[in-house]
């Protein structure tokens, strides 16, 4: 028996909605719309019981944090895990660490492995990245007003 593990939707297939992808893009990258994340392979068909490794690369920035999502057909995206380079992975409730091991060895690369794949593992697997560390002040900075005379009030 074969299992389909799709990492990105096929052209014309059901995948994340444009609004969800835009939200991921905005939330997943601290540098805005300029960051590019590449995922390989884009589609995998494997035999039941085998493992599939999905690679995620940051092409034009360094990611301190990587996010892995999955989406079953006609359902919303589900956050599976968050990884910070150089520390352990935080898995969401119900996601098994030994079933979906994640490696984030450096600031531009992460892998998700689907071990012992079965038909119920068939879904879209999507990575996203953020180039700023959690807890860092990401609020816009306001420049102080230019020095100069204060306006005079009338009598």
UniProtKB/TrEMBL annotation:
Pfam families, per database record = V-set (PF07686)
- Parts of the chain that traverse the membrane: 20-37
**Could you tell me where this protein is found in the cell?**
Cell membrane
From the UniProt entry, list the residue stretches annotated as the region Disordered: 129-155
> GO biological process: what's one of them?
cell surface receptor signaling pathway
Gene Ontology cellular-component annotations: plasma membrane
Q: What is its main location?
A: membrane
| Name of protein | Ig-like domain-containing protein
Native organism: Chlorocebus sabaeus
């Amino acid at each position: 028996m074969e299992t389909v593990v799709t990492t990105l939707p096929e052209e014309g297939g059901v995948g994340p909605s444009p609004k969800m992808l835009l939200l991921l893009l905005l939330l997943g990258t601290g540098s805005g719309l300029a960051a590019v994340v590449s995922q390989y392979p884009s589609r995998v068909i494997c035999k039941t019981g085998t493992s599939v490794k999905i690679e995620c690369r940051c092409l034009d920035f360094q990611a301190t944090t990587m996010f892995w999502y999955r989406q079953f057909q006609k359902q919303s995206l589900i956050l599976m895990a968050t990884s910070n380079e150089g520390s352990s992975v935080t898995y969401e409730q119900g996601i098994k660490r030994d079933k979906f091991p994640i490696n984030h060895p450096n600031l531009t690369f992460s892998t998700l492995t689907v071990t012992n794949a079965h038909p119920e593992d068939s879904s879209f697997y999507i990575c996203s990245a953020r180039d700023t560390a959690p807890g860092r002040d990401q609020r816009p900075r306001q420049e102080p007003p230019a020095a100069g005379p204060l306006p005079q009030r009338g009598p």
